[in-house]
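Recap from last week: sequence in, structure out.
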Amino acid sequence: MDHHTPTVEIVAAGNEVLLGDVLDTNTNWLCRRITTLGGAISRTVMVRDEIDIIAAEISAAVARRPALIFTVGGLGPTRDDCTLAGVAAGIRRSLELHPEAEAMVRKRYEEFAASGFVPFAEMNDARRKMAILPQGATPLLNSIGGAPGVLLQIGLTAIVSLPGVPEELKAIVDESCGELFARLFPTAHYDERTLVLGLQDESAIADILADAEADHPLVYVKSRAKVMAADRVISITLSARAADAAAVAGLLDPVERQVTAEISAAGYAVRREV
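Predicted structure tokens:
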């Protein structure tokens, strides 16, 4: 990984995920989103809904000084939704009722009640809980659900806490994180190319790929077996980050030529996947 690439970590909290009751698609979505922006996911972890465990993960993550830490899940009204308490403990800040967040939650529940989605519009302790944020936090509008997202800046590291409902998470990222992303990933660009060959034995091309990696250390080369239609093939992904699209192309072009030429010389048909 280029040491200039902004790094990102993800802490996903949820007993239901660790029990296997819920599939964590959120981490995958965030990984792909950050990668396309030119950032690099350096670490992801899934933890239980326990304040001490979340706090330890946040404390350790902040010490590594990534550009951004996402937390996923645990922002709701119930007792086991304790992610913000864990974040606050991890950065040694208190929790406090945030007036703007409270107004957001109140407005959302008034809208839900008017639409018949909830039985009453008034605030109660469970709903007010979703507006209790770590000191210094900024609430992020959740246009779908009740719990706001949360943004904190700790030194050079931003912490963004997102709800676990995928539609809500995506809405907050799409609608409220644009300015943050523009600041964190101002010039980074990522691209990848995929080569496909009708071969089932990765060991037959392992040396070719190893040579390509050694010759071009700024390009990530990864092969994996996959099924296309009824056939098993090998796909080779070439990926790189640089300041702009032209710079990335300058990194990928020679690797693609080298890998294609050497695989063809070995007697295997290879093509770029469109």
